[in-house]
Amino acid sequence: MDNPVIYVAIIVAVIIGAMFLGRGLRRGVSRSGGRYARRTAADRVNRMLDELGATLVVQAPELETREIVDRVVREQPRRFSILEEGEYGIRFVESDDAVVRLVDDGWGTRMQVVRSTERLGMPQNVEFWKDLRSRVASGAGAREIAVIDGPRHGFTRRDGDPSFWEVDDALR
Fold first, then answer.
1. Does residue 70 have a pLDDT over 60?
2. What is the C-alpha separation between 110 and 53, in angstroms, rounded?
3. How far is CA 57 from CA 37, 104, 138, in A?
4. Which of 56, 88, 128, 129 is the most exposed place for a label (fewest CB within 10 A)?
5. Residue of 84, 70, 89 whose CA lies nearest to 135
């Protein structure tokens, strides 16, 4: 085995084999990583939509509830805004990235997210929505008005530029 041609042939075979093996290995790892990313992103979107689907029922007429919500929104103008038609906006990028509406409910007035713009591949504003619900509940408590958790609702994704999530028709 003193012939150097055999050593060179073995080295060339290992290099060529590594090139083909590396390409296949990278492709397999990339596919596996893509599946994992889609699965975890879908789980994260579902958790966000579940939180955005939480509603709050203020056991007071709409006019009194609107006074409470208006005060809370005006205290945090960088997070929240008052929109046309009596709706409220939650800001992520734009002032209406999520739209909150007050709806008459059998128990009082229900506050719910009716639309959320998709940013960075998923709905945003979950933390601000939690904060708004908490602040409204505190404001109602200060007036000795009872507040209860309302029914959760689902969302349907609508394509567009940008895409958005809209509340299912049952709870409009």
1. yes
2. 12
3. 36, 9, 13
4. 128
5. 70
CA distance 12 to 98: 60
> Could you count the other beta carbons within 10 Å of the beta carbon of residue 73?
21
Half-sphere exposure of 151 (CA within 13 A, CB side): 12
> Which tokens belong to 141?
């408590």
How much is the pTM?
Answer: 0.72
pLDDT (0 to 100) of residue 73: 92
Q: For residue 104, give the nearest of 137, 71, 150 by alpha carbon.
A: 150
End-to-end CA distance of the chain: 83
Beta bridge partners of 167: 155
Residue with tokens 């075979």: 13
**d(C-alpha 74, C-alpha 69), whole Å:** 9
The full length of the chain comes to 172
